[in-house]
Amino acid sequence: MDYDIVVVGAGPAGCLAAKYAAKNGAKTLIIEEHASIGSPVQCAGLLSTSAIRECEVVPDSGFHPITGAFVYAPDRRRIRISGGEIKAYVVDRRIFDRTLAENAVRSGADILMRTRVVGIDIGREAHGRGRRRILHVTIEGEPDVIGADVVIGADGVQSRIARWAGLDTPDTVLSGAQVSTVYDFEDPRFVEIFPGSCAPGFFAWAIPYHRSARIGLAVRPGSGSGVEHESAWAHLKRLIAEHPVVSEKCDPGIAGIALGGIPISVPQQTAADGLLIVGDAAGQVKPTSGGGVYPGAVCAKIAGKIAADAVMEGDTSARRLSEYDKLWRGRIGRELAIGRRINEWMTRLSDSEINRLIRVLDDGELLDLITRYGDMDHPSVVVRKLLMNRKSMSAFLKMALMR
Questions:
Q1: Quick one: how many helices (H) and strands (E) in the chain?
Q2: Average of per-residue pLDDT values in the chain
Q3: Per-residue confidence (pLDDT) for residue 233, from 0 to 100
Q4: Could you tell me if residue 353 is inside a domain?
Q5: Which of 29, 96, 275, 388 has its CB surrounded by the most CB atoms within 10 Å?
Q6: Which residues are CB-contacts of 135 (< 8 A; sequence separation ≥ 6)?
């Protein structure tokens, strides 16, 4: 088999990269190692309205609308953040991912399931114009070879494509765990967030989805005290059994379990001769929320077009493809960097400091500011507004001086 562009991985980033490569004239193939797109599920499925638009999908009755959030301090005090309008949707990722795959196929891409890449060779260099890639694969267990002018690695946080190309992988990866169960939501249009030692280095969540709930958390390796070496699953079991809020509202019965890694750092380079990486493979994930669909979609569409243009020009060298690096960092690089600093600051807060922070934010003026300027995909906007507010800035300074 021979293609202009081969995309490895049929998640949202992979499907959108393939869609845009095909739309721009490249003969494109998606290969997916699993038997079913969207499985196994490794995502909470909470997508901002911007993420839905960026994926070019129209919400339907299967999308569960979210209009706000309750944020609980470790001492059970909570703040209510509500914009009145729909801010996000909870989706079934299996159906959502399959829709994106169908859209890619409609745009002209081919797709092969149960196809696993087991190695990559580099072909001859064409007078400084890049090296063709030869993928060694197994298709339903049978060995085969696929040629490509450009390979786009969308194969997740532990990307083999990136490693084989000599590219760095994200150096900070959270460990996540989630269950599907029944939960007593006060408002089924609100998610619930639980920062603190119940999820060292990140936070826990309760997300409504029609008549069920997704209860999960992520932890940062090396965070916490005494339990830093425990798995996310161990922390989640303790959350459900012992947390003063979650344990009262959560049914002990579990319908499904999802485990996965969440990268919150980006590598130095995301392009090489005849190769690009996108999505989780490139650490294109919001460090403040762990969401990867919006930034992955933004970057994947850039990757698909750049790869197709490079093929049409006959130049797939690292120098030509590095335009992808410049463009995606120009779009979301600053936001990811600010998100990383916010995450690192939150990681250092103790439960008592989080309690004080929630008390400070439980103020009509500040909650109105958060409601007006809060954005799941651009947290720097509301952070800037808070830092410009004398009331919140004074409290933040006091917290910093007391550390």
A1: 13, 18
A2: 91
A3: 94
A4: no
A5: 275
A6: 6, 8, 31, 117, 119, 120, 145, 146, 147, 148, 151
Nearest 10 degrees: CA dihedral of 155, 157, 163, 164?
A: -10
Q: Which domain holds residue 305?
A: 2-43+93-170+267-343
Element (H, E) at 271: strand 271-272
Instruction: Give, for 121, the enclosing helix (H) or strand (E).
Output: strand 115-125
Q: Which of 26-30, 147-151, 229-233 has the lowest mean pLDDT?
A: 229-233
Interval 253-270: pLDDT, tens: 787 888 999 999 999 999
Distance of alpha carbon 61 from alpha carbon 47, whole angstroms: 15
Cα 272 → chain centroid? 23
Note the pLDDT tens digit of each residue in 366-378. 899 888 888 888 8
Work out how many domains the chain is built from and give that number.
Answer: 1
Residue pair 196/348 in contact by the 8 Å Cβ criterion: no
Whether the CB-CB separation of 197 and 219 falls below 8 Å is answered with no
Domain annotation covers residue 303: yes
Q: Is residue 226 part of a domain?
A: no
- CATH code for the domain of 140: 3.50.50.60
Reported as half-sphere exposure (CB side, CA atoms, 13 A), residue 205 has a value of: 26
Instruction: Record the pTM.
Output: 0.93
What is residue 330's DSSP assignment? I
Using left for φ > 0, alpha for ψ between -120 and 50, and beta otherwise, residue 97 falls in: alpha
- Paired tokens of 188: 């089924």
Tell me if residue 331 falls in helix, strand or coil: helix
What's the confidence (pLDDT) of residue 274? 94
Beta strands 256-263 and 173-181, pairing class: antiparallel
CB atoms closer than 10 angstroms to residue 307: 35
Evaluate whether residue 108 is within a structural domain.
yes
Number of residues that this document lists for the chain: 403
Alpha-carbon Rg of the chain, whole angstroms? 22
